[in-house]
Amino acid sequence: MALISSDRLRYPCEPWKLVENIHVPGDEGTLETLFALGNGHLGIRGSHSTAGDGELPGTFINGFHEIWDIKHAENAYGFARTGQRIVYVPDANNFTVSIDGEALSLSESTVLDYHRSVDFSTGVYEESITWACRSGATVTTVERRAVGFDSRGCLGLELSVSADRDVSADITSGVVNRQDQPVEDHSVHDPRRSGRHAGRVLLPLHLQGSDGSLRLAWETSESRQRVAMAVDHWISAEGQPFETLVAEDESSVRYVLAIHDGGPFRLEKSVSYVVAGSSDDEDRGESLAADAEANLVSFGDILAQSKAHYEQYWTTADISIGGQPEMQQAVRWGLFQLAQATARAGVAGIPAKGVSGSGYEGHYFWDQEIYLLPYLTYTNPCGARKVLESRHAMLPDARVRAKELSVDGALFPWRTINGLEASAYYAAGTAQFHIAAAIAFAANRYEWASGDDTFRGELGADLLIETARMWASLGFFGKDGMFHIHGVTGPDEYTAVVNDNLYTNVMARFNLRAAAALEHEGIADTERMVWRQAAERMSLPYDPHLEVFSQDNDFMTLEPWDWNTPRSKYPLLLNFHPLVIYRHQVLKQADTVLAMFLQWQDFTAEEKQRAFDFYDPITTGDSTLSACVQGIMAAEVGYGDVALQHFTDALFIDLDNSHGNTIDGVHIASTGGIWSSLVCGFAGMRDQGEVLRFDPRLPSEWDGLSFRLKVQGRLLSVELSQGSMALGLVSGQDYSDEPLAIHVRDHLVTVGADGVTVPLDTVPVPPPSIFPSVFPTAGLPIIR
Questions:
Q1: Which residues fall in the annotated binding site for substrate?
Q2: Burial class, 764, CB count within 10 angstroms (exposed 0-12 / middle 13-18 / buried 19+)
Q3: Are 338 and 675 in contact (CB under 8 A)?
Q4: Averaged over 379-394, what is the pLDDT?
Q5: What is the pLDDT of residue 188?
Q6: Any idea where the Glycoside hydrolase family 65 C-terminal domain is (predicted)?
Q7: Looking at residue 780, what is its pLDDT?
Q8: Partners of residue 167 on adjacent β-strands
Q9: Phi, psi at residue 117, to the nearest 5°?
Q10: Which CATH number applies to 322-687?
Q11: Helix/strand/coil (H, E, C) string of 62-128?
């Protein structure tokens, strides 16, 4: 059932905000994700601060995790041995407000007016509630939150309380260790959700507090990572806190005072987090807490940082859709989430849920290279480079892992935080070797698009060479003279451990070609020759009967899925044993179609259309990574209505909680796919060729589409309307004004500061493909 799009009274459509005007119990967990704040390093869920009014509140720091020994029912050589899971850091978003002895809460008190919002233009969360107290007073509480950007470990919270008469107020500001609170392990029922640790995770190192200030530090019990926090309070009234209490799982600062009619009472709470590895120092907790204290900044400074960051961000990252206000709001929410997941991540990966939740254990997947790096590369190339630096830092562990699986070069983990493989189910984890090509592809794209002359020598060559060595040793030249890659799983996790997965082979071919083209002293002539031969002889399964590239060698022989299966049985992974799914012709997500999008120059228009026509109807969309890719290829093929439907599905995955697990955090890779849907789908951008290319497919319902891209040191402005495309270079001290050659359909144009407008004809809708029966014997009477 839809959420945001279904009730525009409760969630009005505003272009620069997500707003909730009516509180309705039951959606708290999903809304905690939708109203979350973050900066890529630190994230806080959009929970109500009062105890009992939240479902899954919490605060996260990217990469801060605990480990445990994976217990396999039947162990085998090379299985992942150590699990990793993001840890809730102690949460400062806790306030209790009692008025004349009544503790205010949404679940127990009378609410006269309710309004909360997150402002995309400033990054500020605001919640205003007017209460009818049992004492007869009418009280309004207003909370504001923001995260720091220059001070990326900092969080600012503000609570103001006003009343229509004199009241007695008892206000407590708390810090809660949520990681060690008893909570149900939801992963037992849904592998997409985060599990819980059996024992205590955060061990106290330093606990000190007085006069409204807290200095606290903990260490994880197994990974030995440390987190410290400093918390200071400021109040608008005179006086000191009534009490300051410190404990390992809950610390608090309490104020007891009178609030008079005429002016609000304000409480500002400044929070600073610092994380570090283990230490042998005797005062390790105290010194880390001192570091957190040194980084504290005021609530006002945090607000200013957030506003300044987003003012700059939107000048280059905004995407405008003409005449579609609901889509416009959803697109800006998505772009806001991308900033929150990546802006200040530093040299670190981007978790599958950003820092908005604990879903997928906080792991880094291939998602970041295929779905997030395009957005980062063209809007924040420095951020893209840092993600690739984090992958480069994993190379030592990846080389060890490669030897463990009897291949050369480097084998990157399918899912990880610390660089080690954490996927306990190898068939849909380790077997997805294609992550190596994703990393190589992202590195090549970054170098092509950024104009970063130092990247290849410092990072890029290592990533391309080590992954190429892995492919050359993983595959083999068969009796047919072709190069084969066996025993792998492609992006479609409903078909596992297969031979010659088309996506894997196509991307490996790219990887081998790119590495062979390098001028590098570390590449021997014989090695380069092997790479070139493997690429040129790469086996690409093709079904001549259907005239379609096959997803793998055996896919076309599988039994078709029963499409009368009721919708309640989807997603299939929650309702059928993997072996049942593996035996059938059914896709979790785009696979062959994705290969044709990424390696667009290797396939003809007819091949792309037939592949789309064949695979789109048998793709369940059980993966949130699928709809955006299906929409991009539908647009390229010329199916405008289908493209718009897939795009709309992708756009509202989280806002409407259409996959039922938004509670665990934003599907940040899918959100990155929205950026690609707009730029690569409807604007038709393709890169890594001789020049940047555009082949637009603007939906007929839209008045226009405009955005900006950072390309090879320039800032390119793109404005697409019905019948034309305008391109220009935006001047500025950070950007070159040297003209840029761009292909728009059949036109090669030179774009400078004056701009170029290219007329566009309407693209005709092609007739759909007609396939012969998959099974020649279908329809014959059964011989008994």
A1: 366-367, 588-589
A2: exposed
A3: yes
A4: 98
A5: 56
A6: 685-751
A7: 34
A8: 259
A9: -155, 160
A10: 1.50.10.10
A11: EEEEEEEECCCCCCCCCCCCEEEEEEEECEEEEEEEEECCEECCCCCCEEEEEEEEEECCCCEEEEE
- CB under 8 Å to 46, separation ≥6 — which residues? 31, 32, 33, 34, 35, 36, 37, 118, 125
Question: What is the C-alpha to C-alpha distance for residues 784 and 774, in angstroms, rounded to an integer?
Answer: 23
- Exposed/middle/buried for residue 245 (C-beta within 10 Å: 0-12, 13-18, 19+): middle
Q: Where do we find the tokens 């005239």?
A: 547
Q: How far apart are the first and last CA of the chain?
A: 47
Please give the structure tokens belonging to residue 192: 């997409």
Listed in order, the ranges of the chain carrying CATH 1.50.10.10 are 322-687
Is the peptide bond preceding residue 571 cis, with omega within 30 degrees of 0?
yes
Q: What percent of the chain has pLDDT over 90?
A: 92
- Helices H, strands E: what count in the chain? 19, 33
User: What's the whole-model pTM score?
Assistant: 0.96
Strand ranges for 151-289 from DSSP E:
154-163, 167-176, 202-210, 213-220, 226-235, 243-245, 250-259, 265-276
Q: Which two tokens stand for residue 616?
A: 């789109």
Backbone φ, ψ for residue 607 (5° rounding): -65, -40
**Mean pLDDT (the chain, rounded):** 95
What is the rounded average pLDDT of the residues 196-200? 79
- Output the CA torsion sign for 505, 508, 514, 519: negative
Number of C-beta neighbours around residue 695 at 10 A: 19
Cα separation, 144 vs 119, whole angstroms: 11
Q: What percent of the chain has pLDDT over 70?
A: 96
Backbone angles phi, psi at 349, to 5 degrees: -80, 175
Q: What's 231's DSSP letter?
A: E
Lowest mean pLDDT among 110-114, 281-285, 426-430, 680-684: 281-285
17-312 topology per CATH: Beta-galactosidase; Chain A, domain 5 (2.70.98)
Characterize the bridge pairing of strands 124-132 and 226-235.
Answer: unpaired
User: In sequence order, which residues have a C-beta less than 8 Å from that of residue 300 and are 6 or more positions away?
Assistant: 156, 268
Q: Lowest-confidence range among 70-74, 470-474, 589-593?
A: 70-74
Interaxial angle between packed helices 502-516 and 435-450, expressed in degrees from 0 to 180 and rounded to the nearest 10:
50
Beta-strand ranges (E) seen in 699-765 are: 704-711, 714-721, 724-729, 740-744, 747-751, 756-759
Query: 């409903």: which residue's tokens?
Result: 494
Query: What's the rounded Cα separation, in Å, for the pair 497 and 72?
Result: 19
Residue 279 has pLDDT above 80, yes or no: no
- What's CA 507's distance to the chain center, in Å? 22
Q: What is the DSSP string of 126-171?
A: EEEEEEE-TTS-EEEEEEEEEE-SSSTTEEEEEEEEEESS-EEEEE
Measured CA distances, 393 to 78, 397, 398, 726 (Å): 22, 9, 9, 41
Q: Are strands 724-729 and 692-694 parallel, antiparallel or unpaired?
A: unpaired
Q: Which residues are catalytic?
A: 493
Cα–chain center distance at 730: 29
Would you tell me how many other CB atoms lie within 10 Å of the CB of residue 523? 18
